[in-house]
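User: What would this chain look like folded?
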Amino acid sequence: MARPVTDGRRPPPPERIEEHPFVETPAQPPHSGVDLLARTVGRLRAEESTRALIELAKGILVERLGCGPAEAARHLRLLADSSRLPLPELAADIVNQAAGDLVAQAAAPTGEQTTAPTGEQAADPATRATAVRLRAAECAALAADDTGAVARVLLDQAAAPLGATAVAVWAAHADGTLTLAGHAGFTEGEAARWHHVPPGVGTLAQQALTGRRTLWFPALGDRGGDTSTATVGRGAPATSGARAVLPAGPGDRLLGVLEIAWPDVRPPLTPQLRRQLEALADLCGHTLDAGFDPADPAAGPGTGLPDLLGGLLDPAMVLRPVYGADRRIADFRIESTNEPFVDPVGRSPGRLRGLGLLEAYPLAATEGGLFDRAARTLATGEPYRADAVRLRMLLDDVPLAVEAHIGMSRLGDAVLLTWRIPGEETRLAHLLQHAQRLGRIGGFEENLVSGAVSWNAQLYALYGLPPTAAPVPVARLRSRAHPDDAVAIGRFLRTVLHHGQEGAATFRLLRGDGVVRHVRVVAEPVLGEGGRPVGVRGAYQDVSAQHWTEVALAATRDRLADTEQESADRHRLALQLQQAIMPPTAPPVDAAGLRVAVRYRPAEKGHRIGGDWYDAVLLPTGQVLLAVGDVAGHGIAAATGMVVLRNALRGLAATGAGPGQLLGWLNAVAHHLTEHVTATAVCGLYDPETRTLRWARAGHLPPVLVRAGAAEALPLPKGVLLGAVAEAEYEERRLVLDDDDTLLLYTDGLIERRDRSVQQSIARLLATAAGAEDDLEEYLDRLLTHSNADTDDDTCLIGVRLRQRPT
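Assistant: Here's the prediction, encoded as structure tokens.
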């Protein structure tokens, strides 16, 4: 097959496995003193790796022959002389035959072998050279100090002989983000630009990780605004040729991605090259997982496991994965249980130990999802918790339904599974409730179905109301609180009323007699069928004296600690900068037949002040500019980057250009005129004459249109995130608005959850947004209250509603 050429046309898609030759490219001779020095260092490193490989072969002979190190070294030399092989090649042969792993398969000329080649195959110089190269790279990588050194080893000793010029090692996190853990061959500026990749961007590494498959591009090239091939070094001449992207991790645990770049066009991927690349990815996964120490009780199952299980009040069991021939999880073996554990079908713990999860609880593991959840927890390390899960089990072949609260967490290379029956949870809740009823506390209870509210006498006194007054429902708490405490109360209401969890908040209570009290409210939901809150009970406590004491202590602490004062000043500066441009509740905008309302909710933790921004302004052309964006990162850098992009967009919009052109210019600003700022954004221009909204996006979440009570996400135009590449094109879409249409623009802080995909979060937003209220302000407040995001990120929300034309 002829090699494809880069003539400006779109390169072919990722290739499947095909039988094509792939010729290893020898290293080029040095052209300068720097090249000569680099080659000398590389040769010394290769020699050190070769010595480590020979020592590894000696260790295998010591174990196999039962002799000492000196005798093993003598025996190795005799074998090399008799076989007329150099010591490194013989050492690689011995290690491959003992290991039978992916490296051994990669060194074989066909895919059928699982051990080192012998006979005529072993005599093949190319096969022997491949075996030595891969084993030497393995020894050097396992001895490296960090992931950056691993990337350099993989490039110098394994990828460069194949003609590659750069290697990137990505580390995957539970929330879907990727960080560039190590790199070699890419410039420092390019690596810094791609150091952090948020979830949902769709880079090559994220595609390989999500699809759990190898991607091969014979010719990557610089594809401008094409987000399907967005990755580090795509536009650089030295790394814009072929590209291989492989998920990395031991077994089913995917810890990251290995990405290898070539400078020129390559033929389709051959089986032999694929095996070599997969062996390097497997090695990369083991180095990413090298921090786990099985002997450390804090890291995983070990000597401290009985003490850990014995300290748990909830029934618990430890599940250890059992891998099949394909290196995927076939089952989980029940390794141990604690004393509170009781089998729902009456079996003793001794009968359960050693059984597989699919064998002991087949219906609960498959239909109830315990097996899939345990596999996900083991692979990602993401804890799992679910209330009132209905599980089916078999009692003498008769199905038995059990309702339990489930929790899972990774424990080293195993999974800790806990469950609790509702009766036990109710008793614990009552004990907790009585323990909290201390001091000057006013209690309340509210039925969310009927709306009935009950207060005790102390609570009426705390509010300054007569006993005959109507109690204030918890949902109307904002009406009695200081306006600056609206954000804290909003989080409290979402936690209790919509998340169904115990919550607490401290706020300033504005009484009718003019007295201001600092009050702490603690509440717990009463859950009904399906886990939905049907009631709320809790207590208010006057903490004014404690508040002023804390204020005095904080002032003293600030005077004594200069570093804390400096940190507080930086946080306050970022917060003031943020609030100066985006107040939490901005005045509504009425222009060009539109009513525009905005909400901004900062992150709960002060150090996570982010770069979310919005804009809604009437342009001199009579059009209305609508925009929302999210700068990657937090702190001063994110806040200043947000200011640059927001002000730049306002100035560019005055030129009369369309939203696609505006985002193209804004991408140039982010790429060339900032310190490695990357951001997502949606930009729209509304024309009141035609009632048409032209809009474009840069890697942002889709806007939501609410029409006739139904909510739908708008189809996404193409557009890469701002600052990722030097030049990008952004596709435009048009939307004609009808009377009473409502359009929502938002950032990911409104919907994002760690336990759900982006598609699931958007689907929940659509269900919540359906049936918009007449009042746009109340409608936005309801969306913020119903938000169940758990990433503690700041949030921007714009609501646009088209008023009816006068008849």
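The CA atoms of residues 146 and 703 lie 42 Å apart. If you want, I can go into more detail on any region.
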